[in-house]
Amino acid sequence: MGQVISDALMNLLSVQNLIFVNVGIFIGIIFGAIPGMNGNLAITVLLPFTFQMDTVPALLMLTAIFFGSNFGGSISSILINTPGTNAAAATLIDGYPMCKKGQPRRALDMALTASTFGGLVSALCLLFFAPQISKVAMKFSSPEYFALAIFGLSVIASVSGKSLVKGLISGGLGILLATVGIDSVSGVTRFTFGNIRLYNGIKMLAVLLGVYAIAQMIGRINKTEAAVVSNLKAADKDDHITKEDVKKTLPIMAKSSLIGAFIGAIPGTGGAIASFIAYNEAKRKAKPDEKFGEGEIKGIAAPESANNGATAATLIPLLTLGIPGDVVAATLLGAFTMHGLVVGPKLFETSGPVVYAVLIGCVIAQLIMFFQGKYLLGLFIKITHIPQELLTALLVIICCAGAFAIGSSEMDVYVMLLFGVIAYFMQKLDFPSVPIVLGMVLGPIAESNLRNALVMSSGSWTIFVKRPICLAFIILTFVLIVLLKKGDAKQRKATDKYMKGEQEE
């Protein structure tokens, strides 16, 4: 183990790697600060351009984008009452009122401090607990992997929005897309329609670019949104965070970070759910003089430490079990795969130095985010004022170039554009897009391991209930569906209540 850590530090501690981490944090904050954008979009757009990079700097930059975007979402939440990311939705409840009171910098500093604190807790949990979980996962075989894939697909229940049926349809579409090409077992071509360029299947990255980037760009073309700062009071002279603020919020940040790390490690949850749970918990424990919803600083510390506490933790099931915890983790799964790393129980055994370099880099990235935010916060604020027409045109060009770079084929560009249009109309009809990604990622895993498991049992389905671990995951699947639906209902109720109050005002 000592040799592995030593090799990891040698891979990590170079000027090149630190530069890429800084670049990733910067890009992530920019994409997070722009309403409608997010870290996953940034990762998806830049992923093709990491093909020619070494593994460690490429993965460090992509994960740094993820961390930076989570903090960036709080910038627009606080300044213009619009969450830059879903995870920042709870931050605006007290962030924007504090901004209106003439304390925008204090609110942003608190968000930065809480984000860094939560991110550090999450990164340390990933560093110390992920390898231990992987040892348990070494006992898995095909039946367990099939049960895990089904467990991961159950996430669709939590990302289906108002209609579970529409979520299942989207998930089914993703699974169907994953079957296109030559069947690895029978050698039969499936859904290629005689097009030889589809024999190798549909590139997941091309679909991701279409679903998350092009669909958003089409929406922006049809309805351009101008980021305009509302009428705010002049900033106070004492508009900065104090030691008293940090001391006051430290217990809240510690508790909320642990909440975020726990929830983030559960597939299908993520920062948005964690932030609302942490906010409600802080509000429940509030003192009589703490007026949540009116600019209470704890109302910023709780959700920001929770949603960033969930960031690195979402990578735990990805690295140890090969199950992406959310859509960002699903995209990062593609990044790991494209750089020759097979995520799962044997990852730490086969690629220890590289993985530990990335894990330690996650801790360093949080510190870089803090210092970068401190000195460049004024610049990040201006990002929200970029003309949307210019931004849209630039991103479309980058996406087309990125899609072509996947396999140097115009076919991938056509696939990207096609699914961009499809995803746009799906959004209009309230069909969620996340299940498509989950279906494409987990569908092949479930199919191949189901076949292998049935071969092991000579065609008997009882193998899935005779093996304890497999049975446990099947039971957890049903439990998770129930719990996630209840959690989503509470979150939607809290959000609707807040938005209703805003409209009445």
Structural Rg: 22 Å
Based on Cα principal axes, name the global outline: globular
Structural domain count: 1
Q: What structural class is derived from the secondary structure elements?
A: mainly alpha
Relative helix content: over 70%
Strand count, sense and barrel status of the largest sheet are: 2 strands, antiparallel
Strand order of the largest sheet: 1-2
Unreliable stretches (pLDDT < 50, length at least 5) are 224-235
Tell me the span between the first and last alpha carbons.
Answer: 59 Å
β-sheet strand percentage: under 5%
Reading the helices and strands in chain order gives HHHHHHHHEEHHHHHHHHHHHHH
Q: What's the average pLDDT?
A: 77
Number of helices: 21
Question: Got a strand count?
Answer: 2
Describe the structure.
- This protein is an all-alpha fold and 505 residues long.
- It has one domain.
- Helices cover 71% and strands 1% of the residues.
- It has a two-stranded antiparallel ribbon.
- Helix 5 packs antiparallel against helix 6 and helix 6 (104-137) packs parallel to helix 13 (315-321).
- The chain is globular and about 65 Å long.
Features:
globular, two-stranded antiparallel sheet, mainly alpha, single chain, about 500 residues
What is the structure about, briefly put?
The chain is built from 21 helices and 2 strands.
